[in-house]
Design goal:
By secondary structure, the protein is an alpha/beta fold. Helix content is 45%, strand content 10%. The protein is built from 13 helices and 8 strands. The chain has helices at 13-23, 37-53, 69-74, 97-110, 123-133, 173-180, 187-194, 209-219, 222-230, 240-248, 250-260, 277-287, 290-301; strands at 8-12, 57-61, 83-85, 90-91, 114-116, 138-142, 155-159, 170-171.
Length: 307
């Protein structure tokens, strides 16, 4: 397989390092005594993903703003439950994770692994832009089901469900339809209807997953669903009760759709990371992850032309 045929491996970085932090004990520490469980787990996860998928390159997508104000302006409850202090908007985060997230960023930069983030945007927006713009196929790795929306004939989603990596499904369009009941391009419509507590999206009163799937499949999109709700004689599975709930919530539905859709137009194609071996070695020693860094670089070197 040539480099042009290999996928780019697109990482939802925060999703993966949070997962590693909670999967491994904080008793794992660096030489200075600070926990390094998230760093170790994150690097080992990337190594295994690179080994399994043989990507042409790896892109670590970053939350430069995990709760952008433009999304909050549309849906004030957006990710509100994750905010430690509403006056500052600071995210609730385990105390020892902040330093580790910075260390992961530094190690990725020194390792010459592209790390992309944009002001006022989340990693999901970077992922959506990469999937839409990069000419190579993509494998996105994330635990965020909202990213089902990027799946198409060129983009697959390795969904980090509970359990070990062997249990993480690699979803293509057929896999999405089988798992969630709707096509990938309509997944966001379903999420908006039923709500998403993990993101603070309120949903429509009385619509759960089953009803939402039936509505999406019957009417094709939120526009079609709203049009059916406005009709003088509702057509099944639209009922008068559902029609009233949907028309009452129309403005909120449209706002939530804008919030839930990922951006696809961020300038993500100018990626020219450079390996800084002395800095990488120093960071590996500082954080006590020499073996994990060595394993990552060995795996990466087998599949990238620049090593």
């Amino acid at each position: 397989m040539t480099a042009d045929e290999r996928p780019i491996l697109v990482l939802d970085s925060a999703s993966l390092y949070y997962r590693s932090f909670h999967a491994l004990p904080e008793s794992m520490v660096a030489p200075d005594g600070r926990p390094h469980n998230a760093v170790r787990g994150f690097l080992s996860t990337i190594t295994r993903l690179v080994t399994e998928h043989s990507p042409a390159t790896v892109v670590a997508c970053w939350d430069n703003d995990w709760r952008p104000q433009w999304r909050v302006d549309l849906i004030p409850s957006y990710k509100l439950h994750r905010v430690a202090d509403e006056s500052t908007g600071v995210e609730t985060e385990p105390e020892s994770l902040s330093d580790q997230a910075e260390a992961i960023a530094d190690i990725l930069d020194a390792a010459g692994i592209a790390r992309l983030g944009f002001a006022d945007h989340e990693a999901d927006d970077v992922i959506g832009s990469l999937a839409a713009q990069d000419p190579q196929p993509s494998i996105v790795v994330s635990g965020d089901r909202d990213l089902v929306q990027v799946v198409d004939d060129r983009t697959r989603l390795r969904l980090t469900v509970n359990g070990g990596m062997d249990k993480w499904p690699l979803l293509d369009p057929a896999g999405v339809l089988e798992r969630f009941g709707v096509p990938s391009d309509l997944y966001v419509d379903l999420a908006v209807l039923r709500g998403d507590p993990s993101d603070g999206l309120p949903g429509v009163a009385g619509i759960g997953a089953k009803t939402g799937v039936n509505l999406v499949l019957e009417f094709g999109s939120l526009d079609g669903i709203i049009e059916a709700a406005r009709a003088s004689v509702p057509v099944k599975p639209m009922t008068p009760r559902l029609a009233a709930a949907i028309t009452d919530a129309e403005d909120a539905i449209r706002a939530a759709l804008t919030v839930a859709r990922v951006r696809t137009d961020l300038p993500v194609l100018d990626r020219k990371p450079k390996l800084d071996r002395p800095r990488l070695d120093a960071l590996a020693e500082q954080w006590g992850v020499q073996r994990q860094v060595s394993d990552l670089m060995s795996a990466r070197a087998r599949y990238t032309a620049d090593e």
